[in-house]
Write a structure and sequence with these properties.
GO terms for molecular function: oxidoreductase activity; zinc ion binding. Residues 1-246 form the Enoyl reductase (ER) domain. Pfam families: ADH_N, ADH_zinc_N. Belongs to the zinc-containing alcohol dehydrogenase family. Quinone oxidoreductase subfamily. The chain contains seven helices and 13 strands. The chain has helices at residues 26-34, 101-105, 108-121, 153-162, 177-186, 198-204, 219-229, and strands at 14-23, 47-55, 68-72, 84-88, 93-94, 124-126, 131-133, 143-148, 168-173, 190-192, 210-215, 230-238, 257-258. The longest helix is centred in the middle third of the chain and has 14 residues, at 108-121. It has a six-stranded parallel sheet, with helices on both faces. Strands 4-1-2-3-5 form a five-stranded antiparallel sheet. Strands 6-7 form a two-stranded antiparallel ribbon. It starts with 13 loop residues before the first strand and ends with a strand. The chain folds into two domains: 12-107, Medium-chain alcohol dehydrogenases, catalytic domain (Quinone Oxidoreductase, Chain A, domain 1); 120-256, NAD(P)-binding Rossmann-like Domain (Rossmann fold). Strand 11 (210-215), helix 7 (219-229) and strand 12 (230-238) form a beta-alpha-beta unit. The protein is of the alpha/beta class.
């Protein structure tokens, strides 16, 4: 659908970006599904990379006209699938010189999601000196992370971020040879098939339980296995919603936390 919309107005903290590349995420699909029939045009789009053409009166001094930037947008404002986009300058960053504008547009939302899942929900913590697990009992104790759906956007970023954590074994799932090869290239220590019984495959690797589980797709398919595959007081994070109600009492016997 091609429509004409007004040129955006820059709020004080905004910049106006000439959009050069975007990416499409599952979040865009969910936003589209929530759209009501109100005869109003809604512009979708989270991820944008482009060039600053206008700067608001209170925008960050880190940026100037002509800078190439990338960002994940604000769900409460018009999206980035347009020619010119207004965005708060506090949400943007310079595109690294080492990557293309197209690659830059593919990074923001999946990277932020992976970061928040690992470091804010699953209690992996970054300090000023290094990456370390926040452990109350033994800071040197090896830990394990299972990423269900490691070849997708968030899974791909989660593998790379998790490999920065000392003594954290990263196990991921993939069901095809090409996706398995991709996860291995990104640094996964072990790869198992999510179309088969996950608990059995973990046991074959020597892991009766894992410490952390990150679910990147189809959480309904794996929920019944979570209590068996996760250690007591372990943590589970799903980045996608359930399609059906689940019995969270299954997690209580091990005092598992779900995010």
């Amino acid at each position: 659908m091609d429509v004409q919309i007004p040129y955006p107005e820059a709020l004080p903290h905004d910049v106006i970006v000439k959009v050069q590349a975007i990416s499409i995420n599952p979040a865009d699909t969910r936003a589209r599904c929530r759209k009501t029939k109100d005869n109003q045009t809604t512009v979708l789009g989270w991820d944008v990379a482009g060039t600053i053409v206008e700067i608001g009166s209170k925008a960050s001094g880190k940026f100037k006209i002509g800078d190439t930037v990338y960002y994940a947008g604000d769900i409460n404002r018009s999206g980035g699938n347009c020619a010119y986009h207004a965005i708060d300058s506090r949400l943007i960053a310079h595109v690294p010189q080492s990557i293309s504008i197209e690659d830059a547009a593919a990074l923001p939302l999946v990277s932020l999601t992976a970061w928040e899942a690992l470091f804010e929900r699953l209690s992996v913590q970054i300090n000023t000196n290094h990456v370390d697990l926040l452990l109350e009992d033994d800071e040197n104790q090896p830990r394990s992370l299972l990423v269900i759906g490691g070849a997708g956007g968030v899974g791909s970023m989660a593998i790379q971020l998790a490999k920065l954590v000392p003594q954290l074994t990263v196990i991921t799932t993939a069901s095809r040879q090409e996706t398995s090869n991709w996860c291995r290239k990104l640094g996964a220590d072990h790869i198992i098939d999510h179309t088969q019984d996950i608990t059995t495959q973990l046991a074959q690797l020597g892991y009766s339980e894992v410490d952390y589980v990150l679910i990147c797709n189809s959480p309904d398919l794996y929920f019944d296995q979570l209590s068996n595959m996760t250690r007591p007081f372990g943590k589970i994070c799903s980045i996608v919603p359930f399609s059906y109600p689940q019995d969270f009492n299954l997690l209580m016997k091990k005092s598992l936390s779900f995010h």
